């Protein structure tokens, strides 16, 4: 018999010491092996980290991140702190890679190397049935694809899931993110928490889109490989607008009712569709994507379904089917899902769906990681159970 369980706690207090005491007072049972700390960006992260770290057993590991909103079974919250306390039959190794901006591949390689060293295992010897990696990066560095190359360089079979540390600030010039690793709080980095367990687990993802059968080809990109200059041999923004029946190209922007959020693109991998939605039309007629683009790549065009209903079905049907006796779920929820739910008046129903999850703690993130891919507009989940 093996199991992994999680207790959760949430605090809306403001003083870091009071928050730490409030959170830990809500816990009971055996000392946790790992604590996750998801805190609103406006909090004093270092003081909060210090207060929580001082009150945890020395053997308990601590990871966390700044958020654009915090999640638990009671819904999606603002300006709070959510704690998840994991216990049971697992070991965990932590690694922090620094310098994402300068060399994201090296940062990813550094993070997984340190996590493996803590567990006493070589990267190339990681058994994908017993090991899974949780990844949290500084989301505003936009380096997910490069850091993933570093993490997976010596073992491409390792399953990874997570998302970007974030901020509820909407002004790009003022956005920043921080990551917690035990007593250290840092930006411009990436965390890998490497789990080893015989308990049931799964990395999962949920989005609210269905394929339309239509496809488009990225026929020309810029030198950064983040802007589509042409789609199907035509100016990118105008072509996408014509496909969607949108007259004003500015209305394509993600978050607007009839634009990219309604009809995003996806990369088909086997039978799965990984959402890699376009982000913003630019004045020169190109389209900015959050992920890297390759000339000649084909993307499927999706259409929106029932956001709250499909999330409810995910927790009620798919997660229990994939994880035996689910006991814990770490949630990495795209901020774009939040914006869309708010715009469509679905946020109360979306929050309500979290009651159907196993014990849950998570955050609204700046883009997501799933199975080695940088994706968006998705809820990614690391779930554990018992056998």
Structure report:
This protein is α+β, with helices and mostly antiparallel strands. The model has no long low-confidence stretch (mean pLDDT 96). Strand 4 and strand 5 form a beta hairpin. Strands 14, 15, 16, 17, 18, 19, 20 and 21 form an 8-stranded antiparallel beta sheet that branches. It is globular and about 60 Å long. It folds into 2 domains: 278 residues, no CATH class; 95 residues, no CATH class.
Oligomer: single chain
Overall mean pLDDT stands at 96
Tell me the strand percentage band: 35-45%
Given as residue ranges, the uncertain stretches (5+ residues, pLDDT < 50) are: none
The profile of the biggest β sheet is: 8 strands, antiparallel
The percent of residues in helical segments reads: 10-25%
How many DSSP E strands?
26
Radius of gyration: 20 Å
Domain FIST C-domain: 236-372
Domain FIST: 31-235
Organism: Corallococcus coralloides (strain ATCC 25202 / DSM 2259 / NBRC 100086 / M2) (Myxococcus coralloides)
Protein name: FIST domain-containing protein
Entry keywords:
single chain, 39% strand, 387 residues, 8-stranded antiparallel beta sheet, FIST_C, FIST_domain_N, 6-stranded mixed beta sheet, FIST domain-containing protein
């Amino acid at each position: 018999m093996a199991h992994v369980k999680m207790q959760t706690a949430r605090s809306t207090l403001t003083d870091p010491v009071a928050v730490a005491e409030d959170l830990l007072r809500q816990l009971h049972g055996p000392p946790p092996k790992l604590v996750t700390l998801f805190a609103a960006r406006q909090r004093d992260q270092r003081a909060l980290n210090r207060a929580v770290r001082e009150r945890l057993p020395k053997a308990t590991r601590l990871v966390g991140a700044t958020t654009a909103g915090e999640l638990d079974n009671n819904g999606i919250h603002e300006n709070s702190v959510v704690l998840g306390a994991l216990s049971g039959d697992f070991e965990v190794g932590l690694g922090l890679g620094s310098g994402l901006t300068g060399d994201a591949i090296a940062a990813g390689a550094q993070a997984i190397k340190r996590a493996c060293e803590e567990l006493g295992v070589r990267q190339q010897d990681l058994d994908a049935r017993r090991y899974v990696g949780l990844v949290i990066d500084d989301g505003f560095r936009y380096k997910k694809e490069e850091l993933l190359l570093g993490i997976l360089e010596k073992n491409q079979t390792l399953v990874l899931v997570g998302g970007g540390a974030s901020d509820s600030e909407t002004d790009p010039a003022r956005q920043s993110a921080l990551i917690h690793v035990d007593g250290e709080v840092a930006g411009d980095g990436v965390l890998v928490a490497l789990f080893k367990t015989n308990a049931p687990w799964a990395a999962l993802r949920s989005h609210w889109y269905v394929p339309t059968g239509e496809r488009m080809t990225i026929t020309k990109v810029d030198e950064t490989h983040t802007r589509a200059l042409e789609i199907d041999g035509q100016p990118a923004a105008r072509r996408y607008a014509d496909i969607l029946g949108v007259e004003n190209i500015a209305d394509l922007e993600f978050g607007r009712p009839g634009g990219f959020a309604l009809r995003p693109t996806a990369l088909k991998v086997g039978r799965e569709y990984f959402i890699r939605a376009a982000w913003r039309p630019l004045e020169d007629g190109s389209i900015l994507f959050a992920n890297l683009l390759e000339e000649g790549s084909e993307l499927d065009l999706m259409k929106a379904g029932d956001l709250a209903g499909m999330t409810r079905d995910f927790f009620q049907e798919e997660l229990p089917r994939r994880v035996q006796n689910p006991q814990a779920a770490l949630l990495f929820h795209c901020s774009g899902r939040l914006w869309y739910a708010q715009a469509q008046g679905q946020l109360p129903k979306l929050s309500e769906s979290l009651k159907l999850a196993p014990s849950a703690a998570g955050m609204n993130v700046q883009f997501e990681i799933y199975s080695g891919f940088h994706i968006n507009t998705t809820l990614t989940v690391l779930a554990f159970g018992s056998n």
